[in-house]
## 1
Amino acid sequence: MTDLDRAADALLRLPPSCGPVRLVAVDGHAGSGKSTLASGLAAALGGAPVLRLDDLATHEELFAWTDRLREQVLEPLSRGGTALYRPYDWHRRSFGEARALPPAPVVLVEGVGAGRRVVRPFLAWLLWMERGAEESWVRGRHRDGPEQADFWDGWTLAETRHFAEDPSRPFADTLVRERQEGYDWLPGPTVTAGPDQIITHRDGFMSVN
């Protein structure tokens, strides 16, 4: 069993947090590896739905997407219904056709700010990619190429401002550190040992008591 399999098993044992759904956030700096982690977890969960926050943000509203998230996703899921959201097309600069997000046992929400203040009450667990801002941004710039340099210049300022005003890492349940093969799963700042702790961290893996 891989570390992602163990993490998936642990997340499935959490109590639902948003209607029947265990909503799990994958947060971290842009370029830190959030999308890769979310995709790996989704596969380990048997194809869990993943909401990419890039689909809710826009060029003009890099972080002002909370109303869309609440109205299109959180409120329908909290009622046990299927969420319908319109993903933003970053090339056409417009929203596309509605996309369904079913109330699966675990739904992953991935993106910078996934663990922000207004989202946390709906979360079953908050994962934070433990990679520094500068290293993450270098990776992101390399991934996107020089044609996106102007966007990245604006993004780094916006992200710095966002996390200064509404940090996620201090509230993370688990810090996830990428290694050459797999991940290390470390207790987040909010995790304390005790009999009521749902997820413990042993031997570099996340497991259930």
## 2
Amino acid sequence: MARKVDIVVISDVHLGTYGCQAKELLHYLKSVQPKQLIINGDFIDIWQFKKSYFPKSHLKIIKKIIDFSNKGTEVTYIIGNHDEFLRRFSNASFGNIALVNKKILELGNKKAWFFHGDVFDASVQHSKWIAKLGGWGYDLLIRLNVLSNWILVQLGKEKYSFSKKIKNNVKKAVRFIGDFEKTASELAIENNFDYVICGHIHQPQIREIETKNGRCTYLNSGDWIENLTALEYHNSEWTLFTYDKKMFEENKDFELDPYEQQTIEMLIKDVINF
């Protein structure tokens, strides 16, 4: 039985890449029944997109989003930097699905501001080739990580995240995340928002931030590559959902098809030829 939720926020799914945990995301989406679904950017990764890799599990995510909209869920797709090609269609709507650059909601007597967050990234705004080069490097790291985790699973070992380790221990990465959260919150406070909800940095978070001008709640929905997280708003309260495979281990929806069984072979070739 799906849980009824007022709002579900997901971001940074990166469909079309090896790192996307589409099966886990579909498990989660099947477990909820949201009145509103907000996709906060980087849903489809056009920067890394390859015609040779878009497996059935990724298509099932798109189908599930359409199913939500057909059954009355209001779907808002906030455009990010990796799916920026959609900006030409900004403010268009298709039934219950709307494409926007940002979204503002009244939640009770509080105001919430949703946007992806790439607006704070100078490399994306002013030097896209640098950002894309960084994106390729990150994608290679994720590919290597997928391959290493496959080997670890075969050996009965726990999976390990290279990029999470780097982000949590490299001073510049830690500082960038802190600056991002501070900047988003300061801007929200200046504009009288109680909540500011972002994606982009793949760092799930809910925390109160206070400045000399006021306070707000900063939230980040994380991603579906490393953290497998979503934000949920229900009964006037925000919570951070983190995927746990034990919650869904009885689910039989995801038998590997022959195409997906070839993924590791394709991945090895792509890593060698990157």
## 3
Amino acid sequence: MTSDLPYRPCAGAMMMNRDGLVFVGQRIDTTLEAWQMPQGGIDPGEDARAAAIRELGEETGVAPRHLDLIAEAPEELTYDLPPELIGKVWKGRYRGQRQRWFLFRFTGTDDDIDIRTAHPEFRAWRWAAPAELPDMIVPFKRALYEQVLAAFSDRLG
């Protein structure tokens, strides 16, 4: 039963450039035309903000010196995997994710972004308007992205 499975602890990062646009990457491991913001698991003993910064580095190549923390979502946000993915991702140990979200200002240039990292997760990347985000993500994460936007609405253009 899926309700018996825990949520995977995770950190998410909304990285906004000087123009108020948000970094999104197109995942390598899917044939879907879905784009997402960087996110990933929090390691045991790791602080959620440190995990978000680490994930940004691992997925975008962006160094911490190019990030200024603007805000942290006031509460954890969760999403459930669709039934067909439960048991197939994360070795079947989780029903979805509980995430801490952070909004960062990207102070570098596009040349400071390199998705060809040691363990690439994205095949392409681009800047997107915040309002576009819910329509770009896989459908089962749409409500989560709407909650992220609501959490940061006073900081977005």
